[in-house]
Amino acid sequence: MRAIPLIVATAWIAACPAVGHAAGLRLCNQSFDVLNVAIGTPQGAGQVQTRGWWRVAPNQCATLLRQTLHERRYHVFAADVFGNEVLTGSIPMCVAPRRFDISGQQDCLLRGFLDARFIEIDTMGQKNWTVFVTPRPD
C-alpha cells in the first residue's frame, strides 16, 4: 500500500452561521486514512499542555477544543493508525501511546513520554478555527 503524503490547510469558520457548532478548534480529516490527533494548548508563562488522542475517520471532523479560542497559536500532531506521522511539524512536544494529558514539554523522554513534532496553527485571533487535513495532489 502506497503512503499518501498530506498537507494542511486552515479555514476560518466563525463567520459561517450555517455551520452550527460551538466555538472552538476542530480538525476535519479529508484524507483516506484514520488519524490519531493530539493538541498542544498554551497554558501561560510559556508553558504548553498536550492532550490526545482523538480518532478521526476519513471525511469526519473532531472538536479538539470546545471553548472559545483565546490564544492565537495552538499546536497539532496527527499519525495514522499504523503510527506513521501524517501531520508533523518542527515543534517538539510530549505524547504518550495511550490517552494522555501532559503539562510541560521539557525532557519528554526522561519523563517517560514520547517526543512528537507538532505544527503550529495560527488562528489569527479568531474564536473558531477548523484545520483540514487533505491529500497532497500528485
Give an overview in words.
- This protein has no helices and 11 strands.
- It is mainly beta.
- Strands 3, 4, 6, 7, 8, 9 and 10 form a 7-stranded antiparallel sheet that branches. A 4-stranded mixed sheet has the order 1-11-2-5, with no helix packed on it.
Topology, pairings included?
Elements: E1 6-11, E2 24-29, E3 35-42, E4 48-56, E5 60-65, E6 73-80, E7 85-87, E8 91-95, E9 100-103, E10 114-122, E11 128-135
Parallel strand pairs: 2-11
Antiparallel strand pairs: 1-11, 2-5, 3-4, 3-6, 4-9, 6-7, 6-10, 8-10
Q: Give start-end ranges of low-pLDDT stretches.
A: 1-20
Strand residue content? over 45%
Shape: globular
Number of helices: 0
Count the beta strands.
Answer: 11
Helix content: under 10%
Structural class: mainly beta
Radius of gyration: 15 Å
How far apart the termini lie comes to 16 Å
Largest sheet at a glance?
Answer: 7 strands, antiparallel
Q: What string gives the helices and strands in order? A: EEEEEEEEEEE
Provide the residue-averaged pLDDT: 84
Question: What key phrases describe this protein's structure?
Answer:
disordered N terminus; mainly beta; seven-stranded antiparallel beta sheet; 138 residues; globular; 0% helix
Please give a quick description of this structure.
Helix content is 0%, strand content 52%. The protein is mostly beta strands and 138 residues long. The protein is globular.
